Give the backbone structure.
Amino acid sequence: MTGTDAPAWPQCGHLDAGECCRGRRVGPYTACLAHLDSAERAAHLASLTPGADLDHRGTPFTQSLLDELLAPLREPGSGRARVGEASFDEVRFTGDAELEEIDFDGFCSFASAVFGGGVYVREVRTGGDFRLAAAQVAGDVWLDDTEVGEDAWFYEARIRGTLRFCVREVGGSAMFKGMTCGNAYFSGVRVGGVASFGGAVIDGEAAFDGAVFEEGADFEKVRIAGRACFDGTHFHRGRACFSGADIGGDMPFAEAHFAAEATFDGAAIGGDLSFSGARLEAGVDFRRAVFRRTARIGPLVCPGTVDFSHALFEAALTLEAAAREVRCRQTRWASTAALRLRYAEVDLSDAVVEFPVTVVGRPRPFVSPEGEVIAEPGLTDDRVRVASVKGVDAAYLVLADVDLTGCLFVGAVHLDQLRLEGRCVLSSPVGLRWMRRRVLAEEHHWRATRYGDGWTPAPPGVETHEPAVLAPVYRQLRKALEDGRNEPGAADFYYGEMEMRRHDTAASRGERTLLRLYWALSGYGLRAVRALTWLVLAMTATVLTMMLWGLPQTDPDPVSAGTTDGRRITLTTRKPTPVNPEGPYTRRLSAERFEKSLRVVANSVIFRASGQDLTTTGTYVEMTARLVEPALLGLAVLAVRSRVKR
């Protein structure tokens, strides 16, 4: 109500500087309490007894007039004033206002009042509401050692100084929507209903340490220029909502308790968030939040989801969290960051990484600043699992000591620059028919559609990709490990790349046939046992062939023939053509022929001629062996080299 609006109560007829006083008439008089003459005022005050209602809306007050009004209401024994219901809406108070040792059986209202100084409330109890809504206070507002039976109304209040709301208990809700003040202190207050600070503006710091909000608290779009302390704060039943809040400094939540979800959706935070020793029973939502100068978040222990989707980190950050899930979908890091996590499944889908960001699986529990181990209730799987990096430019991404069993890589760019440090686990096929190797989750999904058992199908909503899509992913990851001097680790990714090329139906038949042969002989040069097995089989077949058909019946002896012509003798030596062996095969499988055959084959493996006389068949077999068997030996050596190369 403005000063030009007619009040809703009988108005005082006193003229002050040409304006009619808005104070409520004191019946049966025609003036308000401030404008009664001395006799009328004395008569009115004499009619008051403890427990009387007071209605002095719009009346101009001073502290002396207020003391005069309360004097007849004080109990003789205790000295405390006892009032029924008190309405002081739209009063104009000159100087400071002090309310001390008063019991209100009902409400006490100063709505839309104007105070030229501060408001100091000490040892006051109200059975109903305490209202300072839309009031204007030129100084501080202090409520000390006070109890409010029902609601506390401070919405749209304008307080130039400090608000010290050290109320022991508010039985109902506490409404501070749209309030403005300098500093604000709510330490130790207990609010039985909802505490609402939506849209409040605090130009200094705010303290809520030790406060208890039974039905949760709403800090939506609150603006706090400095530090906002919530150490030891308890949010029971209802959620703690900081959506759209703008906090200029740190927000410590050490030893705080969140019985429901904590929401920071769209908040702007200018300092660190400490959750050391905090107990969270649900998730924490930081979606679309902006962290301006935040250097540290945590240690945060949460049995639910910590969601940083669409958040922006403008400064270098260290995040320490133990949670069931950490979502960083479309999160943007405009500076370096280190995410030290426990238990969590991390989703980095479409994140924007402009500077080096490290995701590390921490093996040890977090500790408090006092050195005590922080408990982690509700968390059992101690693996840190990366669920997805699709859509990420991985040039600045570092993954260390994490589980990549279910990680989705398709859609990421610059995977060849991704750094995998420590022990990064990938899944392997299950079953005797499959060779053990590190396999991407996307290959599991594709093979599950073809082979079923031993392969993990794609989760609901996850697309299954064909080999042509997966081959480049394997190739880039292989290069990333090779650049990191991890040749043995890169071998599995090379195997996966070749497998996807072999199964790519878009490739030419000739290429796929060549790849099948390469796979069958040596597992793409990576399976030494397979190559050695083929080598042994080839050598065995060559030895048997030599014993049966390659060695002659007997070693031919040189034959010399000569002629004489006077004093001259001419000698000619020739070796007869080897005779093919004859007789039963069992006679050819002798120890002597085995030894000769083995010598021929052994020399063939190292690409040397044995010098043994052979039949025509044996000659061609030796030529073939000298081509095939060294190649198989080379493939075996290559496979061993790929596993031990540094």
Remarks:
- The chain has ten helices and 52 strands.
- The first helix runs from residue 38 to 46.
